[in-house]
Structures are given as structure tokens and as C-alpha cells.
Design a protein that fits this description.
The complex is a heterodimer.
Chain A lengths: L35 H5 L22 H15 L3 E8 L2 E11 L3 E4 L9 E6 L4 E10 L4 E5 L21 E6 L7 E10 L1 E2 L10 E3 L11 E3 L5 E10 L6 E7 H13 L13 H13 L3 E8 L14 E7 L2 E5 H4 L4 E8 L4 E10 L4 E6 L22 E6 L3 E2 L14 E9 L7 E3 L11 E4 L4 E6 L11 E5 H4 L3 H5 L7 E2 L2 E3 L9 E6 L4 H4 L7 E5 L2 E2 L3 H9 L6 E7 L6 E7 L1 E2 L4
Chain B lengths: L26 H12 L3 E8 L20 E9 L5 E4 L1 H4 L4 E5 L5 E10 L4 E5 L22 E6 L12 E14 L6 E7 L11 E3 L5 E8 L11 E5 H13 L1 E2 L3 E2 L2 E5 L6 E6 L4 H4 L7 E5 L2 E2 L3 H8 L7 E8 L2 E8 L1 E2 L14
Parallel strand pairs in B: 5-13
Antiparallel strand pairs in B: 1-2, 1-4, 2-3, 3-6, 4-5, 5-6, 7-8, 7-10, 8-9, 9-12, 10-11, 11-12, 14-21, 15-16, 16-17, 17-18, 17-19, 19-20
The chains are: A mainly beta, B mainly beta.
Chain lengths: 583, 352
């Protein structure tokens, strides 16, 4: 996407009007209201200033600088923020609005407030008043409201449309009952289409949190440019992910503002440094060849007990013709085959091989003789430090219009931001707070330079968006690949024992129950036995024992050092693990 | 089998053709250094509810822990070199045994010293042989919306194997939040979008300087989604107010004016509608019709504001009330009474 040079700063200011005129009329509201004279009221001018465009933008050199930019952007917006309550019949909606003109014009979501609703607004200074619907665009979920009065602090909505994946964004709105809440994230995708919903052709997707009530809030970059308007929470038809959409400001300008103002208006804009988007772009170029979009082929009726995720899904190329994906999606009942789409546009059919159930990863294999398979540039997970920035990736966002043949590849890597939360978790996994979504599961986790750390999964079941997710380091994946290629399913290792809650222990976990016909029973473990260590690693609690067990495969032998409850005798007991029996 | 040792030999780090861009996000290095410096003060807590387990000399005929006993895990933070741990009341309030794991791998038995059951705060003591790392208490009134915030703790028990805390990055999403749904009153609390999950309870929220600005304790759960991007932390300044009494042991009560208030016209304060006979407000000479505009230096624009500001003070504290009576402005110190939560329709904190 072309970079644009001039960007306006957000300023709170009144602006000159161009004399009385009639406003355009809402297309479908049924309520046709002329707003000309009211809009034309002259308001005071207090332009705070537009930054010189010539100054080359620089990245914040420190987190403190990043923070002070963000703090400043947000504090300039908050005085213009308004909370909306709209009542239409028995239906009450809440949302966010912003003053966009000092004479009381407000920007809001059409679905929150429209011609059919009685609208009440709550201002930053504690006032509450009735607002009137002026015009709107139901298709793009935009509305303009008006309250009487003048001199309101307002925001300037950026005209430019060059928001890039990797740009930092903050969303300002009113979730639930709160006034003025801000969340931080990056732009994941622009002009990309997800499966469904109202923002089909105006997608700007971000990983900043949005909650009910934030609709109509503004999306601002750390330099204070308003780049989008928060949309409703949407669930993607295909991936079932909750997607945080914003309506790009160019849509606001084209559909609303030019109708009110009578034409486009040049704006200065605070230039943004290339910084993160450039780095993300480079990372994306590096990582995209490793990424695939997996299209499942469904049997005709795919309605089982559990509603499957229709797909597509993201996968990672881990070897010649070898692709790892996330089992809970790609192993759903009803899938009878796969087609794998690569970043160069090639589509190949793939076969399912083995699954590593401990990690929820499944291997797909494509046959393509002569194909040049990319080799991942690996970042050793041992080099990571908690706090370091990482990206997870999705391939499920599609360009608007499907992308031209021979033009931009259809599979584009969309980044999601997180930091390393912890290292050497269960199965040596790297823990991150990057959002775990159905669309990022099975993709790689990389550093900001696109070097691959491992494959992104969730060791806590199917929980998505939790802010706790895991990545199996590349080096830990490699030894399993030959087994998976043979079609072997690697089960979850199972001991078959239950333990007492620990507490006040000097070490060891107390066995309270031994399952019949389990490895624990075979090894003659008994209730009241105290397990002191596993393969020489001292055990402090049951979680730790479970972690050590899970580093094995079924049929592996471990040695437990126990203190027999019956005799107090300390012995080493070899136990041959088994795969956890099916539910 | 292939646990931690299989890493060497597959590294292809650093392709020469693509020189790395200058760091676009200053955070990676800085935050990693921050985490290394700060994390030793963050602890994992394992609690047992019901019958604690016995020593290791158990015999089958002895009491094997009963089915009623359960354990769960959460987080805490050391706030003094001598081993004081802050956590949530809902973490340790009912526990029969408390175990505290430090990031250096040591485990100590914890003893509950005192707490604020309404404000969901508890003080636990461990007895380490020497000084332990601790986090300094910051000034939460100096926070601004948009400030970076780093949460640490033990979500989903992920840290319980080595007690190294999980770290998540977010910002201060909101300040002075009131959330009193449920048993606890999170008054004047810090709202953050740093990922918080079950198990993060009791863990610290830090500012960029590494100061403790809050104790994470509550999240908004939406459609079963744990981390909806709205979490609440008890502010450091509320903690500072309650800490002296918690150190003395026992349960610390919240303060009340002993009056009912409603919103004054257009955000002009909290109008007293009822002043309880013998209550704190009455004792200080406040009357029905007085309009409170400031409490202890904080502006009061509504009855909700009054409740919010009040919620950070323990009973017995003397706070300065500024009010308007008719045309006159007044100022009066009030010694707060003991707040008794009621089941009034306004919620548990009605009747302040």
C-alpha cells in the first residue's frame, strides 16, 4: 500500500465553516433531516497546531518515550469522548461517540444510534443531554449525531488510508459501564476480508481489545492520528474468531464527512516513522513462504455433535512437503481431505498423517516432487528472554476482491503482537500473551525479524483469546516429525494416578488414587505413596510431576523415587507410561 | 526423551542478505531487562482448602487427605525484604495452608497476617532465612491512561513448575474504576488490558519504573472468554492506606461517612440525602442537603464518585471533606466509621 506523506495531527479545535448549506440526507433512515443552518454556526478557532511535515519521524528510543507519546495521544482525545445510550422501542444500546466539530457534531456507530432511536449522551464534563441523529451510513456502520451548543473539544479524523499492519493502535471507548477506556494493540490486517459480518469491504483488523460499548470509539496511532472507528464485535464465519474491526477513516471521509463538508479537505498529518510496520513487513516477507492456508474438504454433512470450525486454517511448513497444523481444527470429524495453499499461489492436496496429542499438532504431507521447499530461519528458544516481543501469524485474512491473478499472493501473513511471558513451560514450551485464535493456531511464532521460534498452540484445550498460549520450540518439534510422518499418533503419556493437593510440603506429592489397569497400578504404586522424584528431578507438586511426565511419549519408561506409605521405605520404581485412554 | 536438550545443531540464525532494521519497538531489550530485574519479587502461591495434607510419615490407616480438600494456585508479590507478600483475599482468605514459591525455586510456608476481605487484599508472611527481593510500592495517583503496564503472575498455574512468573504487557486502560459486582468492592481501581487469567489473582501490576502500582484481582469474563481485555487491579495507594492495619494483624474494615447521597445537579457533587444519627458524618456536623465536592483532595462530582473515593480508606481514618451548604463552602475533617456491607438494592456497598 502506498505510503502517504502528509498526515494531520489530532487537534482539538473548532474549525471555520463555509457558510450555510443543506446537509445530505441519510439514505435509508426514513428520517430526512436538514441540518444545514445548525451545522453552519460559526465556532471559535483554537487550532493547537499542525506539526511540521518536514521533520523526519523517529521511533521512540525507549519505552518511556513510547509511553509518553501514547499518553499524550490519549489525553488529547478524552475530552472529546462521549458515552451514548440509545433506546429504540424496548431495545437499549450503549456505545461511544466523539465530537468531530465544535458545534456539537458527533461521530458514532449506526448500529448504536440511528434515526429510530432516542439518544442520550454523557459528556466528559459530567453533562448529559439529548442528541439527534443527523445522517448515517448503515452499510459502513457510521452515523453523525448532533447536540446543541458550541465550543466542544473535538477530534480531527484522519483522511489518509495508509494504516499498515504493524502500526501501533490504541482504541478509546466506553466498554460496559466505563467511561474512557483505552486498549493497545497492533494493526493485523488492512483491506482484508474475514468471513462475514458487517465490515466486509472495509476491514481494518487489530488485536487491541474491544468490548461491548466501545463501538463508535476511535482508533488512534501513537502520534495521535485517528486512523479508524471501532466497529462491533464480529465473529468470523470461517474461523469463529472474535475479530476486532475498525472502519478506516477514509470510509468516514468518503461516505460521511465529505457530504457534510461539501468536499474533501486537505489535512496535515503527523508523519509516522516506518519503524514497526517496516520491520513487520520484512518479517512478513521472510515468514510468508513458510506459511500455508489449509482448506479442509468437508463431507457433505458436517454437522456433528461438536460444531467444527469451517476453515481455512493456518499451517506451518516444517520440512519438505511437511506441514503442521492445529489438531482441534484440522482433525475435525467430517474433514475428508485438505488442500494447502502456498504464498506463491500454488495449491496442493495434502494427506493427514500423525497427530501429537500432547501438543495438539497434526502433520499434513503434500507430494510435490521438484518443489523448492523453504527452510525456516530458526531462533533458538533458549535465546529468548521473557518480555521480548514476538509475533504470531495468520493466513486466513483475504485481500478484498480475492486478489488479482499473478498479482499479490492470496496468502498473506498477518501479524499479531505479544511478548514472551515465560520459558520452559510444559513440554519446554514458550509462553506468550500474543492472542491465541483459531486463525493463528498452527502458525509459527516468530520474533520481530520473522525468525521462527516454533509452532503456536494451546496446551489448555481450545481456549482462544486467553492471553496465555504456548509455542513448541522448533528443536522440540523436529524429533517427532519422522514419527508423525509414519502416521503415528503420539498420545498423551499417562501414569494413572491422582494426587492430594499439596501444601506445606518439604517435597514430594502424595498419591491418593491409583486407576485400575494403569501404568501406576502395574508398577504397584498405592495410595499414600509419596512420589519424591521423577528421573532424578525432585518433585514439589503434582503440576511439576505432570510436566515431567508430559515430556515423555507413551511407552517411555520413567523412574519414580517413592516413599512407600505402608513401610516408609524409599525405593526406585520403574514405570512404563502408556497413552491416556480415550474418553 | 527429547526434552530440553535437543536444541543444538539446527540453528540457522541470521541470514546475511537481509540486514535487520533498527529496533522499531524499543520494548524487546528494555522489557526483557525489566523482567529480569523485577520478576524475583513475584511469587506463586499454592493454597489448600479443607484439610491440609499430613507429613510424609503417613500410613494408609492414617488420615489420607479427604476428598473435600482441594488446592489451587495463584500469585503474589513480595513487598519487603523480610518476606511480606501481598495477594488477594480471595486467594488466601479461606486457605488452610499456604505455600509460597519464589522464582529462585525456594518454597516457604505462608502465614496469613491480615487482610481486607471487602477490598480483596491480604498480607501473607513467609520467613526466609535472609532478605528477599521485593517490589517497591508506587504512587498510583501518578498514573495516566495509556501508561504501559506489566502484569506478572501464575495464570493457569503455568508458573508452578519453577515459580518463574508469566509476564504480560498492556496499558492502563482506565483509572478510578468501581466494580462492586460480586463479593468484593474494587473501588478506585486500575483497569488494564494486560492479559489476566485465572491464577493471575494476587499478582502485581507494575509501571515502567518497576514499581508496584496494583494487585491484579478481577477480570471481566465475557461469553466464557477469560481474558476479554478488561482486568482490574487494586491500586497501590489503596494498599498503602490499608497496609499499616493489615500488618497489625486481623481484618481491616472499610470506612464510611454514615450518610446516603445522590447525584447533585449536573455533576456538581454528591448531595447528602440521609445522615445517620451517630454516624461519622453526623459527628462531624454534616447535614442533609450538604453537597460534598471533594474528599481528601479528590474531586467528587457524583454520588458514585463519593463512593469510589471513600472505598480506598479504612475505618477510623480522618479525611477532609469539602462541601457546599447553600451558598457557603465548608471544610470538615471526618473520622470514618465502620462500613457494614448490606444487601440493599443498590448492591453490597449501598448505604455508605
Amino acid at each position: 500500500m502506498a505510503a502517504e506523506v502528509g498526515r494531520p495531527v489530532i487537534v482539538m479545535r473548532g474549525r471555520p465553516t463555509r457558510g450555510a448549506r443543506s446537509a445530505k440526507i441519510s439514505r435509508s433512515s426514513g428520517r430526512h433531516e436538514v441540518v444545514g443552518p445548525a451545522l453552519a454556526a460559526l465556532t471559535a478557532l483554537f487550532v493547537l497546531g499542525v506539526r511540521a511535515e518536514s521533520a523526519a519521524p523517529t521511533e521512540p528510543a525507549t519505552l518511556a518515550e513510547f509511553q509518553s507519546n501514547l499518553r499524550a495521544s490519549v489525553s488529547r482525545l478524552l475530552p472529546a469522548l462521549v458515552k451514548i445510550r440509545a433506546v429504540a422501542g424496548t431495545n437499549q444500546t450503549r456505545g461511544t461517540a466523539f465530537f468531530v466539530r465544535a458545534d456539537g457534531l458527533l461521530l458514532a456507530n449506526y448500529r448504536v444510534a440511528n434515526a429510530g432511536s432516542d439518544i442520550e449522551v454523557f459528556l466528559a464534563d459530567g453533562r448529559r443531554m439529548k442528541a439527534e441523529y443527523v445522517i448515517g451510513d448503515p452499510e459502513h456502520d457510521l452515523a453523525v449525531l448532533k447536540v446543541p451548543g458550541e465550543g466542544y473539544p473535538c477530534v480531527t479524523i484522519d483522511r489518509a488510508a495508509d494504516t499498515r499492519p504493524g502500526d501501533w493502535v490504541a482504541v478509546v471507548g466506553n466498554p460496559f459501564d466505563h467511561w474512557g477506556s483505552v486498549t493497545l494493540g497492533i494493526v493485523n490486517a488492512v483491506d482484508r476480508l474475514q468471513g462475514s459480518g458487517v465490515y466486509r469491504d472495509v476491514a481494518l483488523v487489530m488485536d487491541a481489545s474491544i468490548n461491548p460499548g466501545v463501538e463508535g470509539g476511535v482508533v488512534v496511532d501513537p502520534r495521535g492520528n485517528v486512523v479508524g472507528i471501532a466497529g462491533q464485535l464480529q465473529f468470523d464465519d470461517r474461523t469463529r474468531d472474535e475479530i476486532h474491526f475498525a472502519i478506516p477513516t477514509r470510509v468516514w471521509h468518503a461516505r460521511i464527512w465529505e457530504r457534510i463538508e461539501g468536499g474533501p479537505r486537505a489535512e496535515g498529518r503527523t508523519p509516522l516513522p516506518e519503524g514497526l510496520p517496516a520491520q513487520v513487513r520484512a518479517a512478513s516477507a521472510r515468514v510468508a513462504p513458510l506459511l500455508v492456508r489449509i482448506h479442509p474438504k468437508w463431507k457433505e454433512a458436517r454437522w456433528g455433535l461438536v460444531d467444527p470450525i469451517p476453515g481455512p486454517y493456518t499451517g506451518t511448513i516444517v520440512g519438505p512437503g511437511e506441514i503442521l497444523g492445529w489438531s482441534p481444527t484440522i482433525r475435525a470429524d467430517g474433514i475428508e481431505g485438505y488442500e494447502v495453499e502456498f504464498s506463491d499461489g500454488t495449491r496442493l492436496s495434502a494427506q493427514r498423517k500423525g497427530t501429537d496429542e500432547r501438543r495438539d499438532l497434526t502433520l499434513l504431507v503434500c507430494e510435490a516432487a521438484g518443489r523448492d521447499w523453504p527452510r525456516a530461519e530458526i531462533l533458538d528458544a533458549q535465546m529468548l528472554r521473557p518480555g521480548q516481543a514476538v509475533l504470531s501469524w495468520s493466513t486466513t485474512f483475504e485481500p478484498l476482491g480475492g486478489g488479482p491473478p499473478g498479482g499479490e499472493p492470496r496468502v498473506v501473513a498477518s501479524p499479531f503482537f505479544g511478548i514472551v511471558s515465560g520459558l520452559r513451560r510444559q513440554q519446554n514450551a514458550v509462553q506468550t500473551d500474543a492472542p491465541f485464535l483459531f486463525c493463528t493456531a498452527g502458525g509459527p511464532l516468530t520474533d520481530l525479524d520473522g525468525r521462527v521460534i516454533g509452532v503456536f498452540t494451546q496446551l489448555f484445550g481450545q481456549m482462544t483469546q486467553a492471553g496465555v498460549a504456548f509455542t513448541i520450540p522448533w528443536a522440540d518439534l523436529l524429533p517427532t516429525l519422522p514419527l508423525l510422518r509414519e502416521g503415528r499418533d503420539l498420545g498423551v503419556p499417562y501414569l494413572g494416578a491422582a494426587f492430594a493437593p499439596s501444601g506445606l510440603s518439604q517435597g514430594g506429592v502424595l498419591l491418593t488414587k491409583v486407576m485400575p489397569d494403569s501404568p501406576a497400578a502395574e508398577a504397584a504404586l498405592e495410595p499414600a505413596d509419596l512420589i519424591l522424584s521423577c528421573d532424578g528431578h525432585p518433585i514439589r507438586n503434582a503440576t511439576q510431576l505432570a510436566k515431567l511426565i508430559q515430556e515423555h511419549l507413551p511407552d517411555d519408561r520413567v523412574t519414580l523415587t517413592i516413599e512407600k506409605g505402608r513401610t516408609g521405605e524409599r525405593i526406585d520404581v520403574p514405570v512404563t507410561l502408556r497413552a491416556r485412554p480415550g474418553e | 526423551m527429547f526434552l530440553v536438550l535437543s536444541v543444538v545443531g539446527v540453528l540457522v540464525v541470521g541470514a546475511a542478505d537481509d540486514p535487520p532494521a533498527p529496533p522499531a519497538w524499543p520494548g524487546s531489550e528494555e522489557l526483557a531487562a525489566f523482567v529480569e530485574r523485577i520478576h524475583p519479587a513475584v511469587v506463586s502461591i499454592e493454597m489448600v482448602f479443607g484439610r491440609p495434607r499430613m507429613g510424609s510419615g503417613l500410613r494408609p490407616e492414617d488420615d489420607v487427605p479427604q476428598a473435600g480438600a482441594t488446592s489451587s494456585a495463584a500469585s503474589g508479590v513480595l513487598i519487603s525484604a523480610s518476606g511480606e507478600v501481598l495477594t488477594n483475599w480471595h486467594v488466601v482468605g479461606e486457605a488452610t495452608a499456604i505455600e509460597v514459591g519464589l522464582p529462585d525455586g525456594r518454597i516457604f510456608a505462608g502465614e496469613r497476617v491480615g487482610g481486607d476481605p471487602l477490598g480483596d487484599l491480604a498480607l501473607v508472611r513467609i520467613r526466609p532465612p535472609g532478605p528477599v527481593p521485593f517490589a517497591p510500592l508506587g504512587d498510583s495517583d501518578r498514573l495516566a491512561v495509556g501508561d504501559l503496564a506489566v502484569a506478572m503472575g501464575n495464570p493457569w498455574n503455568s508458573a508452578l513448575t519453577d515459580f518463574r512468573p508469566s509476564v504480560s504487557l498492556g496499558i492502563v486502560s482506565g483509572l478510578h474504576r468501581m466494580d462492586d459486582k460480586g463479593e468484593y468492592i474494587y473501588g478506585d481501581s486500575i483497569q488494564t488490558d494486560a492479559a489476566l487469567n485465572p491464577g493471575n489473582s494476587g499478582g502485581p501490576l507494575f509501571n515502567l519504573r518497576g514499581e508496584l502500582i496494583g494487585i491484579n484481582g478481577k477480570i471481566h469474563v465475557r461469553r466464557g472468554r477469560m481474558n476479554s481485555g478488561i482486568g482490574y487491579a487494586i491500586s497501590a495507594n489503596q494498599i498503602r492506606n490499608f497496609l499499616p492495619d493489615m500488618r497489625k494483624g486481623g481484618v481491616v474494615r472499610h470506612g464510611t461517612l454514615g450518610a446516603q447521597a445522590e447525584d447533585a445537579f449536573e455533576g456538581r457533587g454528591a448531595l447528602l440525602t440521609e445522615v445517620a444519627v451517630g454516624g461519622a458524618a453526623a459527628a462531624a456536623g454534616l447535614q442533609v442537603g450538604d453537597r460534598i465536592v471533594e474528599l481528601h483532595g479528590r474531586p467528587v462530582r457524583s454520588a458514585a464518585d463519593l463512593r469510589n473515593v471513600l472505598s480506598v480508606f479504612p475505618a477510623g481514618w480522618r479525611v477532609l471533606v469539602r462541601f457546599a451548604r447553600g451558598e457557603e463552602a465548608g471544610e470538615q475533617p471526618v473520622t470514618l466509621g465502620v462500613f457494614v456491607p448490606t444487601e440493599s438494592p443498590e448492591g453490597p456497598s449501598g448505604g455508605r
